[in-house]
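Appendix B. One record, verbatim.
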Amino acid sequence: MKFIDLTIPLGIATPPWPTYEPLQLKYFKRLAPNGANGQVLTHSNHLGTHLDGEIHFHTPGKDIASLEMDFLVHEAAVVDLSDVCGDYDIYTSKMVEERVEVREGDILIIHTGYHHFGWDSPNADEVRYMVKHPGPDREFADWAKARKLRWIGVDCGSADHPMNTIIRDWMPRQARQADKVFKKKFGMSLADYFDDSKYQLMHLEMFPYGIIHAECLGGEIDLLLNRRVTVGMFPWRFVDGESCISRCVAMVEDAEYEELLTRKASMPKTKFGDAFEPAHVEKLNQLTRANMA
């Protein structure tokens, strides 16, 4: 068995979720005169590829240390929605089930394609990555509960639609763009579509049911779309942790791994060597132009 990394690179330039503490690094020891290099890190938990735990939004919930390995590692459905959702769009359970088989108790990994706008990408666009990615409505959340999903992973800044978070208030220019899209596509304003009863529903309405999520996935995700595969998320055994920076991997057999490496060799690469599919960006831009027209 071999591993395919679904984790984005983590460094001082990796953007945290807006207003959260970024990674800060300093040396407190050096080889001369201390005989070893030593570093001190300061950061929030919502940085790079990370797992949101229940107590991030649900006070009586589990901490990160309480999550069993059987929960963190399991069969997953990996779905590509980059062909149907552009900036500010809403994705649905129907879109997911049209593209991949989802079974009760699965992990669900959602490829929006917005990892292509991550900080290490040739198409890097931090505002688009954090503020303009698509997201779900309550229909999707209710479906996820009915499917008893273990956890959900997304390749963008949040499992919630960004305009269903406080970002709507922090980024008024982008909120006006989203409002235009919502009126055009759904016949109602952004404020009416995502009213207070739906606020941050992927956090507030899901965590009490134990359905948490990972955010900012990426890495080699473009090699594994619209299929089933075993996925593992590996946070620290973090007592009292509300969330945690993590490593996420998919597990494939040796023969398939060699095939994937051959495919990777022919694809363009990010700054740190992850393969990506340029056609995803082209389609996302096409969908977005239509939304904004």
